[in-house]
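A quick word before the example. In earlier lectures we treated sequence and structure as two separate objects. From today on, think of them as two lines of the same record. Here is Peptidoglycan bridge formation glycyltransferase FemA/FemB family protein written that way.
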Amino acid sequence: MSYRLKAITREEHLAFITACPSVSHMQVPSWGDVKPDWRAESLGWFDEDGHLTGAGLVLLRPLPKLRRYLAYLPEGPVIDWAAPDLEQWLEPMLAYLKEQGAFSVKMGPPVVTRRWSAETVKAAIANPQARRLRDVEATAHEPRAFGIADRLRRMGWQQTEPGGEDGFAAGQPRYVFQVSYAGRTLEDVQRDFNQQWRRNIKKAEKAGVKVDQGSYEDLPVFYDIYVETAERDRFIPRPLAYFQRMWTVLRAEDENRMRLYLAHHEGEVLAAATMLTVGRHVWYSYGASTSRKREVQPNNAIQWRMMSDAYELGAGVYDFRGITDTLDEGNHLLGLLRFKAGTGGEAIEYLGEWDYPLNKVLHKALNLYMSRR
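And the structure line, produced from the sequence above:
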């Protein structure tokens, strides 16, 4: 089957993804408004009968002084990745973006390749011989993913390897941690928590930690703790305006698209986190915590409240987002992996991000620039 690709309206785009069981929050129309340095456009794939069968949010970043663009589809596009005619989906996209002046296209197929159970992750962390999660035997493999990867390579796409010692890519995370809610009660979910998690939830309750939903006016409170977290965990924080823009544009599209949670103890906010929802997929997005009063376990309390609310929203999966690939005890991110693995979910590897150089000279120059940053 051949597909025709053209720009679609935000309304058409939103209607399409609303009918899908799971779509990344980076593929909703409003996500383009979160990124003002990029020009966003909604793309639609139409079959021979004129039906909209696929959609994608593409972000176009201009090169200085040139009318050429890097085209980026984060965690997308939303197409039938298992289709035998995958070329018929992607070739019209490349042709369209080339006409728009793109010199390179980057995308993140939402295709799972491997899964590791929480027990397997725990054993890997305890094994002094294990260095990276990718080298540990997976609990489950997704055979179709390797076929998709082979087809992409034959088409000329180039896989972006996870960058840095911690395994986080320069774009979106290749490794994430998720808890499935499918066919389970909330009691079932908590029953799979490890003993430390269940104990910490009870500690927080006994200590009087209260978790409430916040509002736009509470974003500066979240931000103060977020900056403290950035200094402690050695990452560069986004500006407050970024979160204020996120709140405004995402909630204008859907009031449940973004929520803010604050964990209080004796009048002091000890932890805060944002939660994003698209259909039946819920993400823990940004988290922040102070170093004070850690003994009352505000982080476990806030996550349990968010997980409970996600369940009430009808979530099929609660997504903790990125995890480190390294199992090195000396890496400060390993504690975050331990924390997430304590929920009894599973570590998941996606197919990763892929590049297609439409102009090889400019594409190579961009890669050289990014490698020196």
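Notice the following. The radius of gyration is 21 Å. We will return to this example when we discuss secondary structure assignment.
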